[in-house]
Please model this.
Amino acid sequence: MIGIERESFRLAEVFTISRGSRTEAQVLTVTVTRGGVRGQGECVPYARYGETLDTVAAQIEGLAPGITREALQTALPAGAARNAVDCALWDLEAKQAGRRVWDLAGLAVPGPEITAYTLSLDTPERMRAQAAKHAQRPLLKIKLGTPDDMARLEAVRAGAPAARIIVDANEGWSAEIYAELAPHLLRLGVEMVEQPLPAGEDEALREIARPLPVCADESCHDRGSLSGLKGKYDMVNIKLDKTGGLTEALALRDAARAEGHAVMVGCMVGSSLAMAPAVLVAQGVAVTDLDGPLLLAEDRKSPLRFDARGVHPPDPALWG
Model:
């Protein structure tokens, strides 16, 4: 049996990117029950990809109750619906076998990974205050993507002079704006820029200088995306809600590395249940951005543990 539950988790603060703001994370929790054993997964439908809670739930409801993880890969396209079911099936298999998911997947025992902490888009003054509040964190991610980004960059660096910084433009710049900002990104110590141009207009990245690594987010979903990224991007951001689950995420990680791309593992804003499988994918990658639970005012029982060493692998009571 496949069960679907709509849940929401309050955010600790309003979270803003160039496309809008939110005060809660709305998710779908999927439970697969077989032989009295239950596996769970979570997804975050994303309007940018034409997904809603209703459309994703309908995709899941159309699946055969006894579908296997292998059959699922072709039964649903890459996206949030397949992600929740794929991760629930991994969890189910682990519980049935009495083993951890990483054992079943042939992976090394995972450890903690330092994760970025995201500062949402705001006025320069407020972003400086956010940066100062979180200046002790080793890696800050700045949400940008507007014509007034230079002042925000300067403000964040002033608020957190010692932190490593990466930037996410969320498709908000043109090639001209990026070329103008790039020298300032370098001057301020920014280590990487994520999706500076819209996914459908990123051919310009082949023609302009990339003085710091450029990461594909909206331009990279699964392994089928890789062939179009050569010569445009230096890094790919793997999110399970884009790949359609842990199965494809692991395959994409290996394929991207084989083609010379560095790897980032990111997330939508969700609970610890959504992040738990991604911690396995994030082992040893260039950038980990699994801070979703840190942005919440409430989380799952047995949540992921975050400390100075980073985000730790999940307890089996949560997942896997």
